[in-house]
Amino acid sequence: MRIINLFCIFFILLGTTIVKAQEKSLATLINEKDVFLVDVRTPEEFAKGSATNAVNIPLNKIEIEKGQFQGKTNIILFCRAGRRAEQAKKILAKYNIEAVNGGTYQEVAALQKKNLLDQLTFRSDEQTVTIIKRAEGIKQVAVALGKGAVLKKHTTNEPAILVVIKGKLRFLINNQEILLNTFDTYDIPVDVEHEVIGVEEENVFILTKTKYFK
What we know:
By secondary structure, this protein is an alpha+beta fold. It has five helices and 13 strands.
């Protein structure tokens, strides 16, 4: 009997561990592909900035717009301080719609990540580009090239660093060719014409220009 009881305790503890392991953190939920991010502040507040891909459904319209929440399984609500998000959560609960209070819009935005491959396509006829960061004195972009795609001859008027993060590139400069492999870096000289060609089916590099480079 004692052995059976020990087994029962063991399986109860094991089951508890499995349940806890299956629980997801707020950061994980925010970055799931099926996330439904809802800013419950006023339209005026929302217009001043919010989390990426968030929709604005003000607290006073949550009940009217409850149809937008139907069928969603990963709903994150947020506002300026978290109080309105909690009220919205309780309103939705009356209609058996589960939601998570994500706190403030700054907290939700701070937990968001981006994947470059979701923003780029690989074409054989031209490059695709997405901006990573643009601020005073610095510009950073990701560039994707399909096989044989050419970033045509051009120059840079600021110091720039190229970092290959996927694939291979042919870098043509001064009538010479440099083969750049994944994780290779290259300092691009100022005012020197150059050209970049994709070698593999999928090629991605990050280009950083800043006046602070020496």
